[in-house]
Write a structure and sequence with these properties.
With 257 residues, this protein is of the alpha+beta class. It contains five helices and 14 strands. The protein has a single domain, classed as Endonuclease/exonuclease/phosphatase (Deoxyribonuclease I, Chain A), CATH 3.60.10. The mean pLDDT is 97. The protein binds one DNA strand of 18 nucleotides through helix 1.
Amino acid sequence: MKIATYNVNGIRSRLPVLLKWLAESAPDIACLQELKAPQDAFPLDEIKASGYEALWKGQKSWNGVAILAKKHLAITERKNELPGDTDDEQSRYLEAEVSGIIIGCIYLPNGNPFPGPKFEYKLSWMSRLHKHASELLEQDKPVILTGDFNVIPEEMDVYNPERVKDDALFQPESRNAFQDILNLGFTDTLRNLFPEEKIYTYWDYFRNAYNRNSGMRIDHFLVNSLTLPGVKSGGVDKHVRGWEKTSDHAPVWIEVE
DNA sequence: ATGCCTGCTTGCAGCAGA
């Protein structure tokens, strides 16, 4: 079972790149973030023609998340919002069960500028995620939380830590909240597979960042202890970031037995 | 300190992204 996450940065303008990547990488399950499209603008026909069923939660202009699963897999929606704040209208969380695995698709708030209300929203969202993640562990099922966490976990996860010292993605509060979720009983799978390697999943559009490899690792796979022994491999489809009309994120994937 | 680039909007310049 190959599971992937990809922040597409606009599913409508990214559709050719998305379909090309799906055909090449052929994940069984793909979590997408930043659809930047309202609910009725999701390109379901094209996704189906590529062999996938889809659940999605759109929103005009910003945010938006989707979970794709190959047609032969039964996919059941569990949640389309993160519990804990009925006033939160941002489409940032989608949860499904596929083949007995609970999949949480996450588009965690960016939180910039720091400090400020957007950063407070980020921390509050992470606190809600912490509570929900702990409840998911009580299900005694395989759990995978994946997506754009907008958190740089460690200094080795960014090209130049000094450049992000005032960035919401690298604040101690953000990193500690991420670690607190791991401490519930989750493993940062890519880091676990490659303890010493420089791994980036995002390169910004400015300053020729991709060609200079000025990147960050902010898209993550968190797996619980029932899932971890089955993890066989993982990686970043870095070359996709070099395609024409590409997202500023690259797809990330793991293979689980 | 700011803009760099890109996608989106009942838009045509301004916002958000990270």
